Amino acid sequence: MEKDYLIRAITTNKEIRALAIRSTDLVNKAQKSHQTTPVATAALGRALTGGLLVANLLKSGSEISLTISGDGPLGRVVVNANYKGEVRGYVGNPNLDFMVNDAGKLDVGGAIGNGSLTIKKNLGLKEPYQGSIPLISGEIGDDLTYYFTKSEQTPSAVGLGVLVDKDLSVKASGGFLIQLLPDASEETISKLEENLSQVNSISSLIEDGVSPEGILEKLLEGFDFRVLAKADAQFKCKCDRNRVGALAASLGEDELKDILEKEGQVEIRCHFCGEYYRFSKEDMDAILSNKA
Ligand SMILES: [Zn+2]
What we know:
Blueprint: E1 5-11, E2 16-22, H1 24-34, H2 38-56, E3 63-70, E4 77-82, E5 86-91, H3 108-112, E6 115-122, E7 129-134, H4 141-151, E8 156-164, E9 170-180, H5 186-198, H6 202-207, H7 212-219, E10 225-232, E11 234-235, H8 241-249, H9 253-263, E12 266-269, E13 276-279, H10 281-291
Parallel strand pairs: 5-11
Antiparallel strand pairs: 1-2, 1-10, 2-9, 3-4, 3-6, 4-5, 6-7, 8-9, 12-13
Helix pairs in contact: 1-2
Bound molecules: zinc ion.
């Protein structure tokens, strides 16, 4: 069976860097974890896919957080991704009603609304690097394209696509990121523009079974390229029972006592993956006495 993975390549003339990813399974897992409706699935899936592309440009050990804050009904979209191809994320309103735009497509831009996109990079330095741009369309691919061009001064093209099936599962998901390197010639730029204009739906390519390598062959048609890195991609959270238990303990004894009396247990749901953690009075006593 095909798996989700990402590749990063460079043209042999060293003028273009290109990444492509298949993210169908990981977006499917996110859809199931958060029970998202189609427009929320499309928004979350694009953000997860884009986050992985951004994170792959970093050095090993680094991670990014991507936050889209819009005034639309979807609320915030938050994604954490790392260099290893692990990603997690959530949207403010996973139950958003079906929304389509004039073209009959899922209206991600309308669901997100106006606002900003912020990328924080934790590079292991004291201060994380942070860049922010106003949203261009809220469609996420366009916004990331603008982010790279404006905030990192790297002319780029980002394509992201998620195809949701009738049963709400994810039929296909994927993306690409193309960047011009400083020595790119006019000839390279115009050939690349021509190639880009011929790829109109990344999710249909994935649906047709085209691999990340095959996507780059289309985008880089006429150029020789070399794949520099390949990484598995997966939806994976960092939460665990110990960490969540410590978080529960930080609610304070009065509040915990109150919750335990009313509910019989303390239940905490991880925002990022939807996992529930439940603690009985005995569990909480053990956590608190360990802490003391
Ligand atoms: Zn989690």
